[in-house]
Specification:
heterotrimer, A mainly alpha, B alpha/beta, C alpha/beta, A: 3 helices, 2 strands, C: TIM Barrel, 8 strands
Chain lengths: 113, 225, 309
Amino acid sequence: MRLSYPADVKIIQVPCTGRVDIIHLLNAIKDGADGVYVAGCLEGECHYISGNLKARKKVEYVKKTLEEIGIEPERVAMYNLSSAQGARFAEIASEMVEIVRKLGPTPVINSAA
Amino acid sequence: MIVADRKSLEEILEMVADCKKILIVGCKGCVTVCNVGGIKEVEILSSSLEIARKKAGNDIEIEMKTLERQCDNEYIEQLSETVNDYDAVVSMACGVGPQFLSEMYRDQKFFPALNTTFFGGATEHGVWEERCAGCGTCIIHKYDGLCPIARCAKSLLHGPCGGSSNSVCEISKDTECVWDLIVRKKMEQGRLEDLFIVNDFKDWRSARDGGPRRSIREELVQGNI
Amino acid sequence: MSELKSGSNLEKVLNAGYFAFTGECGPPKGANVEHLTEKFKFLKGNVDAVNITDNQTAVVRMSSLAASALLVQEGMEANFQMVCRDRNRLAMMADILGAHALGIRNMLCLSGDHQTFGNHPEAKNVHDIDSMQLIRLVKTMREGKFMNGDDIDVPPKMFIGAACNPFADPYEYRVYRLANKIEAGADFIQTQCIFNMEKFRDFMKKVVDMGLHEKCYILAGVTPMKNAGMANFMSKFVPGMDIPDDLIKRLKSVDKRDQSEEGIKFALEQIEEFKEMEGVAGVHLMAIEWEHKVPEIAERAKVLPRPQM
């Protein structure tokens, strides 16, 4: 089964979404990403008990921060799926790309870049 | 420990509106423990400010440094070489930090990123509560270790007032009535009569009312021990 | 009976063994003296003393000291309320002296509602001393000393009142707190509005068992309900209020137009019971913004004419 997902998505692998920190998500936005999402295990099925739940809280925090700055919080998202759900992975990627495309390019301009 | 909350991004952005290059200084003391002004929070504030300024098309350069403490001059001195390289310095320490910085570096501007709130502790992860008002004359032995000065909304020395209902203070359902705690603890211990006295009028000179306070420990000042 | 401490009318009434009847009046939210003296007229001759509230519910009003003085000018007797929220010990002592100079002879010592309830929640509160200590302070001053021990040349002789809420928690402790207030120097007590008679009977039994009624005059607080809505509101939103469902039901059971009459009837029944209740020396009628009903209530409660001392 070879599923394709949009080339716009750059994947950064982590051992568990519990490893993802607020600063990683913020820095992605700061450095010019149009959106960033975390794909964690299904809730209740984290190998490390609660890594994905913590990730969700961090995503919520970043959403609030973006809102405070006046940036669409939808640019950051949390998804849950299992490693067996390849089709769902591709679907989420397309969904997120679609959301971000509708929002347009990031308002965070990196003049130096 | 000293507990604080971070100011809103809007307020901090307003403070640094005219700055092109700033330093954010964190503190590894109390504010690290209460997750509001340590290394991590300095990074988050820095990134957030950068995002906001980039969005506004007005980039800001931010450097970060987290000191062991901002309430001791020996650590404040560590900034001496670089402190004037910035348009302003934002301190993420409690209210003590920006002042120690301001006193040592007279040519620089220092802004507080935090609202210092109280002396307290974490009752659960992410929740801090006030326990001490720093009044300078501790009397909690009279109240079984519970402080009505800090924890009663009216600082009553003879409570609970008529607004105590179901162990909750009249000001908010989220506020415990400390006098209810005191009375119940005394009852459980069979020492209710401890409360049947009219206490002396409190001497507030040892509190902030007596003017800014100073604590001198002679043996340390002279003996260098 | 015992030697008079202040010589106030209220003290004389109580001392002579009459069933006391006191009223209450909130100063205006402005400097409208006419409005205030209008309200006084409903109380004149119908009560032994009028409590003048001190920024009640932490809403700014004409000062209780000034309004009490205006009441005295009208030939009536004030019970000057003072809360610990708004004054430090300097201001308190100054106002106690000033009150005496203006002819005020009764004081009610209170902690005060927290300012979060009022119209200036941003205010800094004082609470230099608490209500227990304020009672002690007024007594100390009556005996001729300032808080610091200095002599007062003409001591302010006040008849000292304190509040008691038998319906706040923890209930078991309430009678001891009352005892503490009497120990501190309270000559009379005015209770919080009573609606739960069953609980109050139990409370008074405890008071009598401890002999507190022999050391201090206890005036039972009565507030006539204007309608079921008021009862509901007080039950839900006023801290320290205990309003039994039965009472709300009783008010609701009659037509809206008749609810105020039903509220007055309940108040009159209460007053009748208080007249007979051991340990109760009088009633404190808090007809909130209903001063014009006081003459009627006093008449129907058969407490008129008030004794002329």
